[in-house]
Input
Amino acid sequence: MSDTDTLVALRDVCLPWDRPLHHVRALMRAGRLPEPVRVLDDGTELVSADLLSGLIATDAQDGDGDADGDAWQAHIERGLARFRDGQRRLPEATTAERRQQQLLRMGGAAWAASLGMLMIGCAERADEWLDRSATCYRWSLADAEAGSWGRSIAAVKARLIAHDWPRARLEARWTLDLGAAEAGSPIARYAAALACLTLEDNTAAGRLAASVSEEDAFPVGIGGTSAALYALAACDGAAYGEAVGAVLRSFEERTRFLERVPVADTVIVLQRLAARRGMEAPLVSTRLPRSKERALSVP
Output
């Protein structure tokens, strides 16, 4: 095996949220990182796959000894470890299939870490990791099978939870560009309804939400979720309060969660959309983030 086989392209090592390419080049010029080992005829710069390993910051937080905080800390640390493992493996994902799978895994790991941070009141940290999650999910779509609507949904949800409305609207437009509103599957219509609500197209959102029903064999809670989406589109506060309450109860009763993190993420998303319309419902649950006054201290 030649020494080139142990190297990867610099562009594949860099990721936009932590160490974008232009910053890595600046670090090289400053002598903080080694220069590329080799430059190929086509201009590709080859570096060691672990070039940035010493620069990855530790984002795990120390709680205040709170038992609930300790439990969420475990979710955070597990998510961060999985994400960083994905970072190390991504440059080695030389095929489109392997790359999209690795990005999907990283998106889920960042999602898990962000929800844990949100649950202990570390909102700013959570927003950073929600950005990473949305970016990975969106990137993974480039090589994923057509109709991978769950990734578009996850990207929109991550932006909404982070209160990142400009990027949420961009994710929503991209979701519709992919044909979610015209696709026949219930998950596609759900994705389209969520996108339309994000873009404040209530007419289209209401029509799409009404087309999603329990009979579509969608995951648990979709009946309440589609009802909540429809109520938001109709600006019906009473109907929304009843529907989002049903969605929350479904999360409180279930034992299986995305990325194994017991958070009512769909409820948080619905509440973000509701708040924009002055319709947020007064909800309290162990499946929802603690209030600001109960936030754990962060060093």
